[in-house]
Amino acid sequence: MPRPSKADERRKELLPLVARAFSELGYRRATTAELAARCGVQENVLYRLWPDKKAMFVAAIEFLFWKRMEKWNSVLEETSPKESRVSRLIELTGKNLGEQGLYQIIFAALSETDEPDVKQALQRLYRRYHDRVKTEISRHREQLCDQDVANDDDTAWALIGLAAFMNIAHDLELMSSRKREQLFSTIAYLVLNGAPN
């Protein structure tokens, strides 16, 4: 198996810093000079790793997904076979709404969808989230759910939409952290399992 290149290793090292800068500043305000300063490198180092700022931003969007999947996988490894994996993810999401502010990259990207590369990166991000959530929903329903509920595809989109709104509520301080967690969990379980009879 070929060794990763030094450029790949360096990108991996700097990407969390680049993503943090984009989450705090947005796309337009994050200059390459600012990105370089936050990474502790000269601008030309960033340009050796990525062709332009847009490529850095697209990489930050990708990073957001893989960072979340890393967290999910860690939690799911600790889930016993008798536990519902999707329930663990609902619990994790409810507790971590607004965590680290990295979701703000998505908000910044939404204002840049006239750029085809950014729009495609967002589409990939949401399709990957959807596929992963749908897989966990299907597994949950095969094992634990016998009620007539919305199909797995629609349920996955509903849960993703709910999480997105809860992040907006976080940014706008519409409700306390505890209230967001409770509301997210209550609605997520209703969408997942259907209303009790």
Report on the structure:
- Helices cover 75% and strands 0% of the residues.
- With 197 residues, it is mainly alpha-helical.
- The chain has a single domain (6-193), classed as Tetracycline Repressor, domain 2.
- Helix 1 (6-29) packs across helix 2 (32-39), helix 1 crosses helix 4 (53-77) and helix 8 packs antiparallel against helix 9.
- The chain is globular and about 60 Å long.
- The relative contact order is 0.11.
Summarize the entry for a quick read.
This protein has 197 residues and is mostly helical.
List the helices and strands and how they pair.
Blueprint: H1 6-29, H2 32-39, H3 43-49, H4 53-77, H5 85-95, H6 104-110, H7 116-144, H8 152-171, H9 177-193
User: Which assembly state applies to the chains in this document?
Assistant: single chain
CATH fold call: Tetracycline Repressor, domain 2
CATH class annotation: Mainly Alpha
The proportion of residues in beta strands is under 5%
Number of extended strands: 0
Structural class: mainly alpha
Based on CA atoms alone, the radius of gyration comes out at 19 Å
Contiguous helical run count: 9
Q: What does the largest sheet look like?
A: none
Number of domains: 1
Order of helices and strands: HHHHHHHHH
User: What is the fourth-level CATH superfamily?
Assistant: Tetracycline Repressor, domain 2
- Terminal CA distance: 55 Å
| Average of per-residue pLDDT values | 90
Anisotropy-based shape: globular
Spans of at least 5 consecutive residues with low confidence: none
Which second-level CATH architecture applies?
Answer: Orthogonal Bundle
Helix content: over 70%
